[in-house]
């Protein structure tokens, strides 16, 4: 591999070459990153310190928040540091590591969203069997399957990229290492590899998105027979899930469903699933979820009350 690869460092072109815009972006992303940590930690602590942890939906939400924190931390700190740096570089080994971790955590997130949709489907369409089907063992098995599927996906992306020869240009027109920008720099024909990437990323994302939409359509169809109060509560929960799914999947599909080509807009769309979605997930899941809001109030009021004493 070393014989074919003369590149040891990549230069990241980032979001902009204008220093004023970079400073503005730094302030904006710093706010977003703090909000991501505060919001997701709030959910994790509130769920783990309350009886909600025993409910499958909140068990998955807890895992999603942890995944969000890890996922955005793979990209955002490096992005913010580069916004203030004169020269934005990343070593070859760090680039490959970032690519592997990013796709692994992204895969985990996609599959957890699928697990959450399955949980809502069973809760609404098969309520009498819900406690049996969604046992704690089943929930752990689903999370294990999510991690295994994500590992297979990420390892495939990594293997498609690690053996590419880089012997010339080393400027990546992005703010992190991803497959398509790297394929553009490889000094070999990458057409077939590009098709494999479409299958491994684009088609998986598309199939998952279709499955999620079909499951929520079935849920909505089943809700017609529910009483108004129960229907309203279920609709509120499902609408939150659908919002998160759309916010995450639409940008992913825009980038990965097409053949190995890159557009300037890719960097903007990538912000949606690397920063914006992890920031809005806690808001979406808490503002429209009375159980979550009550759990937060009880826990934090309890702590403030005892601290006050």
Automatic annotation (TrEMBL):
<keyword id="KW-0716">Sensory transduction</keyword>
<keyword id="KW-1003">Cell membrane</keyword>
<dbReference type="GO" id="GO:0004930">
    <property type="term" value="F:G protein-coupled receptor activity"/>
</dbReference>
<dbReference type="InterPro" id="IPR017452">
    <property type="entry name" value="GPCR_Rhodpsn_7TM"/>
</dbReference>
<feature type="transmembrane region" description="Helical">
    <location>
        <begin position="96"/>
        <end position="118"/>
    </location>
</feature>
<dbReference type="GO" id="GO:0005886">
    <property type="term" value="C:plasma membrane"/>
</dbReference>
<keyword id="KW-0472">Membrane</keyword>
<keyword id="KW-0807">Transducer</keyword>
<dbReference type="GO" id="GO:0004984">
    <property type="term" value="F:olfactory receptor activity"/>
</dbReference>
<dbReference type="InterPro" id="IPR000725">
    <property type="entry name" value="Olfact_rcpt"/>
</dbReference>
<comment type="function">
    <text>Putative odorant or sperm cell receptor.</text>
</comment>
<keyword id="KW-0552">Olfaction</keyword>
<keyword id="KW-0297">G-protein coupled receptor</keyword>
<keyword id="KW-0675">Receptor</keyword>
<feature type="transmembrane region" description="Helical">
    <location>
        <begin position="193"/>
        <end position="223"/>
    </location>
</feature>
<feature type="domain" description="G-protein coupled receptors family 1 profile">
    <location>
        <begin position="39"/>
        <end position="285"/>
    </location>
</feature>
<protein>
    <recommendedName>
        <fullName>Olfactory receptor</fullName>
    </recommendedName>
</protein>
<comment type="similarity">
    <text>Belongs to the G-protein coupled receptor 1 family.</text>
</comment>
<feature type="transmembrane region" description="Helical">
    <location>
        <begin position="269"/>
        <end position="287"/>
    </location>
</feature>
<dbReference type="InterPro" id="IPR050427">
    <property type="entry name" value="Olfactory_Receptors"/>
</dbReference>
<feature type="transmembrane region" description="Helical">
    <location>
        <begin position="235"/>
        <end position="257"/>
    </location>
</feature>
<keyword id="KW-1133">Transmembrane helix</keyword>
<feature type="transmembrane region" description="Helical">
    <location>
        <begin position="20"/>
        <end position="45"/>
    </location>
</feature>
<keyword id="KW-0812">Transmembrane</keyword>
<feature type="transmembrane region" description="Helical">
    <location>
        <begin position="139"/>
        <end position="166"/>
    </location>
</feature>
<dbReference type="InterPro" id="IPR000276">
    <property type="entry name" value="GPCR_Rhodpsn"/>
</dbReference>
<dbReference type="Pfam" id="PF13853">
    <property type="entry name" value="7tm_4"/>
</dbReference>
């Amino acid at each position: 591999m070393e014989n074919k690869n003369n590149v040891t460092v990549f230069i990241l072109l980032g979001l902009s070459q204008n220093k004023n815009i970079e400073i503005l972006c730094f302030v904006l992303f710093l706010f977003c990153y703090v909000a991501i940590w505060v919001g997701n930690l709030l959910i994790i602590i509130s769920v783990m310190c309350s009886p909600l942890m025993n409910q499958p939906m909140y068990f998955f939400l807890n895992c999603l928040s942890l995944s969000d924190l890890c996922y955005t931390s793979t990209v955002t700190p490096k992005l913010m540091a580069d916004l203030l740096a004169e020269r934005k570089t990343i070593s070859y080994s760090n680039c490959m590591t970032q690519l592997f971790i990013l796709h692994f955590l992204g895969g985990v997130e996609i599959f957890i969203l699928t697990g959450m949709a399955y949980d809502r489907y069973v809760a609404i369409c098969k309520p009498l069997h819900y406690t049996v089907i969604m046992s704690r063992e089943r929930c752990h098995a689903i999370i294990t399957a999510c991690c295994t599927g994500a590992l297979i996906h990420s390892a495939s992306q990594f293997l498609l990229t690690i053996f590419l020869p880089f012997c010339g240009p080393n400027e990546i027109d992005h703010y992190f290492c991803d497959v398509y920008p790297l394929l553009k720099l490889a000094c070999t024909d990458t057409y077939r590899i590009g098709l494999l990437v479409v299958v491994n990323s684009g088609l998986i994302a598309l199939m998952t998105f279709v499955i999620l939409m079909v499951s929520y359509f079935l849920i909505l169809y089943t809700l017609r027979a529910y009483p108004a109060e129960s229907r309203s509560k279920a609709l509120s929960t499902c609408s939150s899930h659908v919002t998160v799914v759309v916010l995450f999947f639409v940008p992913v599909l825009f980038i990965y469903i097409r053949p190995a080509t890159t557009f300037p807009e890719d960097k903007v769309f990538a912000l949606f699933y690397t920063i914006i979605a992890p920031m809005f997930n806690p808001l979406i899941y808490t503002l429209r979820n009375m159980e979550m809001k009550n759990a937060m109030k009880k826990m934090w009021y309890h702590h403030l009350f005892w601290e006050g004493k």
